[in-house]
Amino acid sequence: MSLLHVNNITKNFETGEGTLTVLRGVSLDLISGKSLALTGESGSGKSTLLYLIGGLDVPDEGRIEILGQDIASLDDPKRAALRRGTVGVVFQQFNLIPSLNVAANLSFHARLSGSEDKSWTEHLVHYLCLGSLLDRFPEQLSGGQQQRVAIGRTLAARPALVLADEPTGNLDEATADVVMNLLLELVQESGAGLLMVTHSLRLAKRLDHQVHLQAGLIA
Q1: pLDDT at 1 over 70
Q2: Can you give the pLDDT at residue 105?
Q3: 155 — phi, psi (to 5°)?
Q4: For the residues of 61-125, what is the DSSP string, one character each?
Q5: Burial of 53 (0-12, 13-18, 19+ CB in 10 A)
Q6: pLDDT tens, 130-148?
Q7: CA nearest neighbour of 149 among 213, 100, 78
Q8: How many whole angstroms from its chain centre is CA 29?
Q9: What distance in Å separates the CA atoms of residue 101 and residue 154, rounded to the nearest whole number?
Q10: Phi and psi angles of residue 213, each rounded to the nearest 5 degrees, phi first
Q11: If pLDDT is split at 50, 70 and 90, which confidence band does 46 have?
Q12: Mean pLDDT, the chain, as a whole number?
């Protein structure tokens, strides 16, 4: 059984000028332990596809299965539960909770999903070099530090599928490479699958497979 099966997905949005078709029959598959880069120009449908896979929206046509479960058949609370446990999302904007320190941010999703494993979290803290930052708050961290916390928070829940939306987009190249190394190594160690949206062909080539979207179609 594949981890992720996307079959003939279509997504439209209504605008003041009529119907805008963003995805036009997109299909792809990903198995556990493998990584896939999704590339394409702005407006090609990359982020829309990622949000559909993450259950943040539903397709107009087609089917998205995660571990055999059709996620469009789930109601909003069940899709939210999916994002807390089975699917983890790393955003470009970090999305850390300002009122929580690093330690609390790291454990936030794992506690919500009931999957907190203190030994795994401690391993993440060590590997991501966050031990000296646990008492700090997001505003006291650099961009690279915040993204390392965001990666740790996502992986602490041990998701089967990690979705990353331009996870290094706000970082300089050197910091981006460090963060990318950590993300790839930890995802591989956890056995999860990784689907990453990126504009960078250089970073995309580091993943196992690449898919290029152009005008809502796989080119």
Answers
A1: no
A2: 96
A3: -80, -20
A4: EEEEEETTEEGGGS-HHHHHHHHHTTEEEE-TT----TTS-HHHHHHHHHHHHT---HHHHHHHH
A5: buried
A6: 999 999 999 999 999 999 9
A7: 100
A8: 16
A9: 16
A10: -95, 135
A11: very high
A12: 91
Inter-residue contact 42 to 216 (CB < 8 Å): no
169: closest CA among 118, 93, 60? 93
Place of tokens 């963003």: 22
Q: How many residues does the chain have?
A: 219
* Joined tokens for residue 178: 């460090």
This prediction has a pTM of 0.90
Residue 30 contacts residue 36 (beta carbons within 8 Å): yes
Instruction: Tell me how far CA of residue 58 lies from CA of 22, 32, 53, 139, in angstroms.
Output: 13, 23, 8, 34
Q: Are 88 and 195 in contact (CB under 8 A)?
A: no
State the DSSP H helix or E strand holding residue 164, giving kind and residue range, or none if neither.
Answer: strand 161-165
What SS3 state is found at 22? strand
pLDDT tens for residues 68-124?
Answer: 999 988 998 888 888 878 999 988 888 899 999 999 999 998 888 888 899 999 999
Q: CA–CA separation, 186 vs 182, rounded Å? A: 6
pLDDT number for residue 121: 93
